[in-house]
Amino acid sequence: xxxxxxxxxxxxxxxxxxxxxxxxxxxxxxxxxxxxxxxxxxxxxxxxxxxxxxxxxxxxxxxxxxxxxxxxxxxxxxxxxxxxxxxxxxxxxxxxxxxxxxxxxxxxxxxxxxxxxxxxxxxxxxxxxxxxxxxxxxxxxxxxxxxxxxxxxxxxxxxxxxxxxxxxxxxxxxxxxxxxxxxxxxxxxxxxxxxxxxxxxxxxxxxxxxxxxxxxxxxxxxxxxxxxxxxxxxxxxxxxxxxxxxxxxxxxxxxxxxxxxxxxxxxxxxxxxxxxxxxxxxxxxxxxxx
Length: 290
Ligand code: HXC
Ligand code: NAP
Hints:
Elements: E1 15-19, H1 24-35, E2 39-44, H2 47-61, E3 65-69, H3 75-89, E4 94-97, H4 112-140, E5 145-149, H5 153-156, H6 162-181, E6 188-194, H7 200-206, H8 211-214, H9 229-240, E7 251-254, H10 258-263, H11 274-286
Parallel strand pairs: 1-2, 1-4, 2-3, 4-5, 5-6, 6-7
Helix pairs in contact: 1-2, 1-9, 3-4, 4-6
The chain binds hexanoyl-coenzyme A and NADP nicotinamide-adenine-dinucleotide phosphate.
NADP nicotinamide-adenine-dinucleotide phosphate binds next to helix 1, helix 4 and helix 7.
């Protein structure tokens, strides 16, 4: 079991808005922020889920959690969240763009609306939140920070999750662009690209039914395991804290080496046995060239 990395007061006095903060990885990161002394505003569409999560997170950490319903596709709803957060906590210091929508499908089976839905949640939602917070930070001279959760297929693209790949690629570009443009205001923008971290939301939509066994992510990762939520929470807490004050425009991968294994042309030689290597070595040492 992985432990918390930062000292107990690392986020003391900071207020952090976490989209999709009531479930999965958003909840895990929010819980750790609370343990480190932050106030956390969790938002998503389902108020009942948020309120239950907020009650449990407060009981677990003793921190202050505000649960506010918000669909990140609607800019006005984000402005309302910002206003209520400022009323409750005085100011907002960080934004974690974590909310996402995704499902697997051959692209030609998708309706135009299905494609747009994922783009609207992931890319437009991250843009909407960043824009609202950026305007507020610049107007109030606050050195805020944005942390975006993308995926490793934002680098490579991926078949069967094409709307998500397009949207996450856009968020990657948003990260680097804003890092440069808003750096002069003291606003840092970074991203994390996680590999597989089991959550109900992702596994139900990406590995439904028997697929979870047939397409076991563990086998795709050089470290032969999936990620622990606390491992991601440690990295996220560092990146929203002042300890990472000179990190700006970075995309940090936390995936046990998964995407590089997929990219390396010879990585599939993992399947070669010792006996086979003995033969191969004879052949390669004997090669004289032409
Ligand atoms: C094809 C689908 C579909 C599916 C929905 N649609 N599900 N098409 N296959 N499985 C179509 C619908 O028919 C509709 O198009 C359009 O998409 C919008 O659907 P709604 O249900 O009305 O949308 P909405 O209620 O807004 O829900 C959004 C959602 C849903 C994305 C479809 O899955 C959701 O709420 N997801 C949030 C949580 C989530 O996805 N978590 C996983 C993140 S994991 P028509 O044309 O019929 O109107 C992740 C991990 C990446 O990103 C990496 C992992 C290793
Ligand atoms: P999850 O639990 O399904 O999280 C998605 C969250 O987004 C939910 O809380 C959902 O809440 C919220 N959301 C969806 N649509 C929204 C909208 N329109 N407005 C506001 N909130 C919305 O899945 P997860 O695995 O924790 O994913 C969290 C993040 O990690 C995502 O960005 C995902 O792409 C990324 N990620 C996950 C993995 C993994 O292995 N799990 C790997 C790489 C990247 P509501 O339904 O209540 O709105």
